[in-house]
Design brief:
Length: 1261
């Protein structure tokens, strides 16, 4: 027993009733005869035989009956027009019945269903097509039943008229069919039973044995109706206008297509038995034997034609040629046993000459009819063989082979090829192609068992998607919907949701809203059920996220909810639409999914310009409409804004004394500087956040961020305030919260808004959330709490993710006690030149009720400042003089300044402090000053912040070169170049050379001419050593000891380097010079030097902790020479200085070489970590390349230049040549050897001597 074939592959039988029979059935309240006979299809238990005489049992043998006149007329219609009408007809039937289907599904107690009524309807419409096609022979009539009744005036004449009727089929319709005669003999017939029997015998004698007399009682009145299976839906004929526009007039008796077939028959039980007997006898005794005989004869012809290889015939024609033209498509002729009606149609074959202007299409070939007949009879072995031959000859067969073959990849290939021929690549999807693909898909789904169809080998649900293609008709949408239904049965929910979404999008364009909503809900339901994928808990720990924060593929769900919301809105479910539109915002550009960044397409395939704007507009319109139709307040508790516009991590409180400017990180760094500084002096804490005062407003700075790509408006913004141990009535009475009317954020805009809060009584306030009206309509609330830190104190906390309680914004409001108000006298933005030092006045007022007795100023490490006091005066010395500045030479870190106040500041008292400040580098930023104060010793510190914006422009660029001086008066010659980079003229008024071991003197007087923009001047200095070898040796020993500890991994003990005396040589354009003992200049100069050295060490030794630098490196290298260039702009009263550092004069002797060699030769245990070993190697290399390990040849030899005049005619010349040898080492003597002569017989003199540090030796030869 083979597979059950779809009904569309069953025999097609056409009936031609006589007019008297039509009237008889109408009088008996019965439908047309082909409708009555269709009620008895399929027949149970029909047996057929194969060509090998094997029996095949058919549990169900289907038949298709039609009216011959309707079939003939339908064949005259254009294929594309009929296909377009078919698609529209299917869409109309689906649209009319879908609401009823959905009501039945919703009313069903069992929500799970195994079949879908829309697919059943689509299948019946596709399977109900019985009209012959040019592409196959399944719908070509296999038999024509000529039916008359004995109520005719002359029944034999009526039968003769029917037999003599000419068939009006086109040329491409196969005329091979079985002719059958049916005589209906009603009980009320004028003929008696004997006369009817004689008529029957005469018909069999004249027209053959394929005849039957059907006796019927047809009582009057008609008996009660008997339910029967519904007649297959068939495409109604075109409108009468269509027939009048060039088509033949419909047959006068062909009105059966306009009659709607009822689902019942008014037949008595004997009549039903007679009808069933006739139907079975027609099939078993006539139709099946006739088909078997055709198969046997055609198979013999087919087998005989294939006994000789086709290569033989091709080779013969190739060698000898042929004058016979190639045959056209073979046309099979009816066997001798087959009766045929006279036909008006003409068929073209090899024996008929073709007209020059008309080429008639040929009917299906005999080979294809053989394959179709064998398939119907169940001879699948023969059918498969013939279909394969047809497939190889590109004449079809790929569409039927999937029904006959076992599941395999070859079946999928057949399906793919079939659909590729229907939908050629790049071609338009014509209505005819859509209908053909629909038929194939329905046949495959019905003819293959469900297990095989949905198996992993075939994956038949994908075939339905391929058949749907890109068509946007209801039939294509239902193919996608059924594919989704089958995928859901396979538990492929994500794929099913996607296909449901595609089906809904296409149905929405067709206007079938009920089914569209149903498919969208199914897609939403399937996609919301996320697949369970168990991951190790360690995965989430390593990612630092919760399992609930998993980012999923959300593009499909967004495409589901948006059209579903719009459909709900158009159908009147406004609140449901609002829920979907509000939920859509989580799929906006604010989504954390990477796919949210991809532009989403519109329904027409174009890219949506601003999807966020569309989502917001849909929500705004729907919610506004909901408010307008609601008589009372809308319950929004079940509605929640899915995205956040508030950034709690950046939200904070700000007191009146706090600065609104400055980076928070800068303020935290200054607070850390203060904490480090005061940690060694006491345990008094700094009240960082401060406390608000009663009656004084404080502000909550809320960070708003718009993650959308469109503008968003917020209205009625305010804070939710809670008080510890206070109720709501107390808060309403004593706490005033500002309400911001409206804030509009642009696309992707971030903004900080300040909301004022004022309490009239002391309390501890907590601000957990903020409320606002989204788009001015929807009330929303967002939390301002930040998640607490990850807890890892206990074993349980380390094994499972546990966080501390959320961090809320808290502010303590107390009676005003201590408050220092600080402000600049002039708070305008500063525009400075590089190196300029600016004096600014600071006003400090005690705004609290308690006294303030101690004030500190905290700046940044890059800030250079000096606080003037009443005792501090500017100092000057005579021009050209030399000073000595004694320093500790410690590279100390930046420390806060104590502000000198004469007495305690009582409430309301003020004082003025002058601050001299020099910017650290060229930049545009803010000066951030932190003032720390308290009442007296033992009390906690409070702080206030002050900022001032400044912009620093470049001024001077310095560069220096040095070389050994050929003169005997000095050791080195230094050339200093000064270039003006500013846009205005500057005057270099003073140059100060500073060094612990060298004394520098300017060779020429300093010019008083202003230095114009882009101008450069050069200054030269003679440099001579001082007698300071002791400080060099002491400092070098200190550095060797500390860096040796670093190389050997020992702890660096806190130790200060030896102090130094800096020799400062001044050169000025004026009679007096600025003294280095001037407190402001000395402080600013040392601060600048400290910054330069700290940056250099951090860059050269990145692996040595910065906190240990003061214990390892000194501030000055004893061999260094620094230059201070003082400049001024007299017209603008601007002064400043630029420091040039980094010149080291004199010979070095690799002071660290011994320590480096000891480390390299020591047997140290290697680390198992490559990073640690590499870090040690880099530390060693950086110390080897440092200035403290520099080494050079200390001896420099020069020859005194001169001109010798001599007359060599008087004899040889003896001249004196002066050589100068100089030892540039200030700590080590140098041994030298002088050799002269190249040969032993020449004059030779050798001298070995020891040259002590610095002396100059003159040798005359």
């Amino acid at each position: 027993m083979g597979p059950a074939l779809p009904s569309s592959l069953s025999p097609h039988v056409s009936l031609l009733p006589s007019p008297d029979l039509v009237r008889l059935l109408q009088d008996a309240s019965l439908p047309p005869l082909h409708h009555i006979l269709q009620s008895f299809s399929p027949l149970p238990q029909v047996t057929t035989r194969t060509t090998s005489l094997s029996t095949v049992s058919h549990p169900s043998f289907a038949l298709r009956f039609s009216d011959l006149a309707d079939t003939e007329r339908a064949c005259l219609e254009d294929d594309e027009k009929r296909a377009a009408r078919t698609i529209d007809w299917i869409g109309e039937r689906i649209a009319k019945q879908c609401a009823h289907w959905l009501n039945e599904i919703n009313a069903s107690p069992d929500p799970s269903f195994t079949r879908t009524p829309w697919w059943d309807e689509l299948s019946r419409c596709a399977e109900g097509d019985h009209l012959p096609s040019k592409y196959d022979g399944w719908n070509h009539p296999l038999s024509i039943i000529l039916a008359v009744s004995t109520t005719a005036p002359n029944p034999l004449q009526a039968i003769t008229a029917l037999h003599s009727r000419v068939l009006e089929f086109p040329s491409w319709v196969d005329t091979t069919h079985l002719l059958y005669t049916l005589i209906v003999h009603p009980r009320e017939s004028p003929l008696s039973d004997e006369e009817a029997g004689a008529l029957f015998n005469a018909v069999k004698k004249q027209y053959g044995l394929h005849a039957f007399i059907l006796p019927l009682s047809l009582p009057s009145p008609p008996p009660p109706p008997v339910p029967v299976p519904a007649f297959p839906p068939r495409l109604p004929p075109p409108s009468p206008e269509t027939w009048q526009n060039g088509s033949p007039t419909p047959h006068p008796h062909s009105t059966t297509s306009l009659v709607v077939s009822p689902n019942f028959l008014k037949l008595s039980e004997p009549d039903i038995q007679q009808m069933a007997r006739f139907t079975r006898e027609f099939v078993v005794m006539s139709l099946v034997p006739w088909m078997e005989k055709c198969v046997v004869e055609w198979n013999e012809a087919y087998s005989s034609s294939r006994r000789l290889p086709s290569r033989l015939f091709s080779s013969t024609r190739k060698l000898f040629g042929s004058s016979v033209p190639p045959a056209q498509n073979p046309i099979h002729t009816a066997p001798s046993s087959i009766s045929s009606l006279p036909s008006r149609s003409q068929t073209y074959n090899a024996s008929q000459p073709a007209s020059a202007s008309i080429v008639l299409a040929a009917p299906p070939s005999q080979l294809r009819r053989l394959a179709e007949f064998a398939t119907i009879l169940g001879d699948y072995k023969l059918a498969t063989t013939v279909w394969e031959v047809l497939r190889k000859e590109n004449k079809g067969g790929s569409d039927i082979l999937p029904l006959l073959l076992s599941p395999s990849p070859a079946v999928v290939a057949h399906v793919s090829y079939t659909l590729s021929t229907v939908y050629p690549h790049g071609s338009d999807m014509t209505p005819q192609a859509q209908v053909q693909a629909l038929k194939y898909a329905v046949r495959w789904e019905a003819g293959i068992s469900t297990n095989d169809f949905l198996g992993d080998t075939l994956e038949g649900e994908r075939w339905l998607v391929w058949a749907a293609g890109n068509a946007e008709e209801p039939s294509a949408a239902l193919l996608l919907a059924h594919a989704a239904f089958l995928s859901a049965r396979k538990n492929a929910k994500r794929r099913a949701a996607l296909w449901y979404l595609f089906a809904a999008n296409r149905l929405e364009k067709c206007g079938i809203k009920p089914l569209t909503m149903f498919f969208l809900r199914k897609a939403h339901e399937l996609f919301s059920n996320q697949p369970i994928k168990s991951l190790s808990p360690s995965f989430w720990d390593s990612e630092g996220r919760l399992s609930s924060e998993l980012i999923r593929f959300d593009a499909v769900l967004s495409g589901i909810e948006h059209p579903l919301g719009r459909l709900l809105y158009t159908t009147g479910d406004i609140k449901g639409a609002v829920k979907f539109f509000l939920g859509q915002l989580r799929w906006s550009s604010a989504s954390s999914s990477p796919l949210a960044k991809i532009d989403r397409p519109n329904g027409d395939g174009s890219m949506e310009a601003n999807s966020d704007k569309v989502l917001l507009e849909d929500f705004r319109v729907a919610f506004s409409h909901l408010r307008s139709i609601s008589s009372q307040d809308i319950d929004v508790h079940d509605l929640k804004l899915p995205i956040s516009f508030v950034f709690p991590a950046s939200s904070r409180t700000r007191l009146t004394r706090d600065s609104t400017n400055g980076d928070q990180a800068e303020w935290e760094r200054r607070e850390e500087i203060w904490s480090t500084f005061w940690r060694t002096r006491g345990k008094d804490t700094l009240e960082k956040s401060g406390r608000a005062a009663v009656g004084e407003p404080f502000w909550v700075d809320v960070a708003l961020q718009n993650p959308l790509d469109t503008e968003v408006a917020f209205t009625n913004i305010t804070l939710v305030v809670e008080a510890w141990d206070k109720d709501t009535s107390w808060i309403n009475k004593y706490v005033t919260v500002e309400r911001v009317d409206e804030v509009v954020l642009g696309a992707k805009e971030n903004r900080m808004i300040s909301i004022a809060v004022k309490a009239s009584q002391a309390a501890s306030l907590t601000i957990p959330s903020i409320t606002y009206n989204f788009l001015g309509l929807f009330p929303a609330r967002e939390s301002l709490a930040r998640r607490g830190r990850r807890l890892q104190d206990t074993l349980q906390q380390r094994q499972s993710v546990t966080y501390a309680p959320d961090i809320l914004i808290r502010t303590d409001v107390e009676e005003a006690s201590q408050e220092l108000a600080v402000s600049f006298e002039n708070n305008e933005s500063l525009v400075l030149n590089e190196g300029e030092h600016k004096s600014m006045k600071l006003w400090m007022t005690n705004a609290g009720c308690k006294t303030i007795g101690e004030i500190w100023l905290v700046g940044g490490p890059e800030d250079q400042m000096w606080l003037e006091s009443s005792e501090s005066e500017s100092l000057s010395v005579a021009a050209g003089s030399t000073e000595t500045l004694h320093i500790g030479n410690k590279l100390s870190s930046w420390s806060p300044y104590v502000i000198p106040i004469n007495e305690e500041l009582h409430s309301g008292d003020s004082t003025v402090v002058t601050l001299t400040w020099r910017p650290g580098h060229v930049a545009y930023q803010q000066l951030c000053l932190l003032f720390v104060y308290r009442e007296t010793e033992g009390h906690a510190f409070h702080c206030t912040r002050v900022t001032r914006t400044y912009h620093v422009n470049p001024s001077l660029e310095l560069s220096a070169t040095f070389s050994p001086n050929p003169s005997i008066d000095s050791a080195y010659l230094i050339n200093l170049e000064v270039s003006n980079l500013s846009s205005r003229s500057l005057r270099v008024k003073q140059v100060t050379a500073i060094s612990p071991t060298w004394e520098c003197h300017h060779l020429t007087p300093l010019s008083s001419t202003p230095l114009q923009p882009a101008q450069l001047i050069t200054m030269s200095f003679n440099t001579s050593p001082l007698d300071s070898s002791a400080c060099i040796e002491a400092t070098t020993a200190f550095v060797s000891r500390t860096l040796g500890n670093v190389l050997n991994g020992r702890k660096v003990e806190p130790e200060d380097p030896p102090p130094l005396d800096l020799t400062c040589c001044h050169t000025s354009t004026y009679d007096s010079c600025i003294s280095v003992h001037d407190p402001a200049i000395s402080c600013l100069f040392l601060s600048e030097k400290r910054k330069v050295i700290a940056n250099s060490i951090a860059q050269s030794h990145p692996h040595i902790p910065a906190i240990t630098h003061p214990q390892i490196f000194p501030l000055f290298n004893p061999l260094s020479v620094d230059f201070l260039i003082f400049w001024e702009i007299p017209s603008e009263r601007r002064t400043g200085f630029i420091l040039l550092s980094g010149l080291n004069l004199g010979a070095g002797h690799a002071a660290l070489q011994e320590a480096i060699e000891n480390v390299e030769s020591a047997k140290v245990k290697r680390s198992m970590y490559a990073e640690t070993q590499r870090e040690k190697t880099e530390i060693l290399q950086s110390i080897r390349d440092s200035e403290w390990n520099a080494e050079m040849n200390p001896l420099v030899v020069t020859i005194q230049e001169g001109v010798v005049e001599h007359d060599f005619s008087q004899g040889p010349c003896l001249a004196t040549v002066k050589f100068f040898l100089r030892n540039h080492s200030l700590t080590h003597p140098s041994r030298y050897v002088i050799k002269f002569g190249a040969r032993e017989d020449e004059f030779e003199q050798s001298q070995v001597s020891l040259l002590v540090p610095w002396p100059l030796l003159l040798i005359r030869l």
